[in-house]
């Protein structure tokens, strides 16, 4: 408890000495140490509809504070590290299922034999920025260290196209949508087929995640996979090669262009022609890591890592901001501040793009993690599996019948919940943070143990 401020320490002592502390600790642990849990009041009744017998009743009246705490589910690591860890884990399994196959998640193991690549599509230049170009010095003449605060900021902020940068972010999802359209056209053209014939013989599946570069521009990482006409359960045709997919991706990205009309108040009277940058990286994904750098494990881990991050990695804030004065009070660094100000300045000219509302995202308004329908399972399905598992544990503990036993015994659950607030007191926050760290340490130790056990078993084999 060293280093605690007096207010937090005082509240922690109050929490620890209050009746029901053990139950409070259990609630916090069940949320994984959620930083901002939702507080609910109410209860449930489990009835036998045939006999009208009450099988079980639960109410929050006896809970600490008269509420039940449930995890907030926020994906942002800056908001809730505990829920972000769960979200990252779900994203990892979603992406990995589409690479290695997992029949329980809707993809057969044969997808490993399908051509698939890891593609990165970036934004164009909006002006020179400080960077670390390999062994060469930056354009400014300095060799910047890895943690230099000027990395990603303009060399000349007076000539940097801040308006173009935020408009590009704002239309990035549109650029991706057009890319997927052109990709199918390019595939058909390279296969010597009509688009209808190509669709009848193959399907393109993908899972992607958005990431912010240091300069504040969004770019996309995507796993793109060739499937047969019925999706991952069918093999792709012989013409659907890795090289054809790679060439089609590059050609499709080069064709995409979104035109944004000019803002009459802006010096660029011709408007903006938004397109992908020249740096398009397409790498094949190795099935078993036989000497290749980009393995299935590495790709799934990379995508999961960035699924929980957003514009706060550039120095911006992780919540909406109403006006420019607030940016000064929040001490936002100059470069992200000017990007956010550009959103606010451009908002009246493009009211349908909601630039002011998305200023904290530097204009980006799309989903950070998306996938095509046939790629693999869904985040919702993974959450439902976890909820079903916990419900089964609860039924077993209470001795209630399992609805999947296909017996004549059924139950009726009547629930009533009301929102009673969210978040922790200072003392509860300290307790939740420690619970989260303990759980994380336990997971890391378990992971290391299993890795060592697997390595040992492989050597003996």
TrEMBL record:
<dbReference type="Pfam" id="PF20199">
    <property type="entry name" value="RepSA"/>
</dbReference>
<dbReference type="InterPro" id="IPR046828">
    <property type="entry name" value="RepSA"/>
</dbReference>
<protein>
    <submittedName>
        <fullName>Replication initiation protein</fullName>
    </submittedName>
</protein>
<dbReference type="InterPro" id="IPR048241">
    <property type="entry name" value="RepSA_streptomyces"/>
</dbReference>
């Amino acid at each position: 408890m060293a280093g605690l401020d007096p207010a937090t320490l005082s509240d922690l002592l109050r929490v620890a000495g209050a009746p029901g502390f053990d139950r409070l600790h259990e609630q916090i642990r069940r949320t994984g140490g959620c930083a901002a849990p939702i507080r609910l009041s109410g209860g449930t009744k489990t009835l036998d509809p045939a006999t009208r017998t009450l099988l079980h009743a639960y109410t929050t009246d006896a809970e600490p504070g008269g509420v039940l705490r449930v995890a907030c589910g926020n994906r942002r690591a800056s908001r809730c590290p505990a829920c972000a860890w769960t979200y990252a884990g779900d994203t990892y399994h979603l992406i990995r299922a589409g690479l290695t196959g997992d029949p329980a998640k809707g993809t057969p193991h044969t997808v490993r034999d399908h051509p698939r690549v890891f593609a990165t599509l970036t934004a164009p230049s909006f002006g020179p920025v400080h960077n670390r170009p390999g062994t060469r010095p930056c354009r400014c003449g300095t060799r910047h260290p890895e943690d230099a605060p000027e990395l990603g900021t303009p060399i000349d902020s007076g000539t940097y196209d801040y308006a173009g940068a935020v408009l590009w972010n704002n239309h990035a999802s549109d650029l991706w949508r057009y890319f997927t359209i052109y990709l199918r056209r390019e595939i058909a053209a390279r296969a010597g087929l009509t688009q209808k014939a190509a669709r009848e013989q193959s399907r393109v599946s993908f899972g992607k995640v958005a990431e912010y570069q240091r300069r504040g521009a969004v770019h996309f990482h995507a796993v793109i996979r060739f499937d047969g006409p019925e999706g991952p359960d069918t093999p792709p045709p012989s013409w659907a090669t890795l090289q054809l997919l790679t060439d089609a991706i590059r050609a499709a990205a080069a064709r995409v262009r979104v035109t944004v009309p000019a803002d009459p108040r802006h010096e660029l009277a011709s408007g903006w022609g938004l397109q992908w940058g020249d740096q398009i990286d397409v790498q094949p994904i190795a099935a078993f890591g036989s000497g290749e750098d980009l393995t299935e494990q590495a790709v799934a881990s990379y995508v999961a890592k960035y699924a929980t991050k957003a514009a706060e990695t550039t120095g911006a804030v992780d919540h909406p901001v109403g006006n420019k004065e607030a940016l000064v009070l929040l001490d936002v660094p100059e470069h992200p501040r000017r990007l956010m100000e550009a959103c606010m300045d451009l908002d009246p000219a493009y009211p349908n793009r909601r630039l002011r509302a998305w200023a904290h995202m530097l204009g980006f308004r799309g989903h950070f993690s998306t996938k095509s329908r046939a790629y693999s399972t869904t985040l919702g399905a993974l959450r439902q599996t976890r909820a079903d598992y916990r419900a089964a544990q609860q039924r077993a503990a209470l001795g209630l019948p399992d609805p999947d036993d296909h017996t004549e015994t059924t139950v009726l659950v009547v629930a009533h919940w009301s929102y009673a607030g969210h978040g922790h007191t200072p003392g509860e926050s300290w307790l939740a943070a420690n619970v989260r760290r303990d759980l994380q340490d336990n997971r890391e130790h378990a992971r290391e143990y299993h890795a060592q056990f697997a390595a040992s078993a492989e050597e003996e084999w």
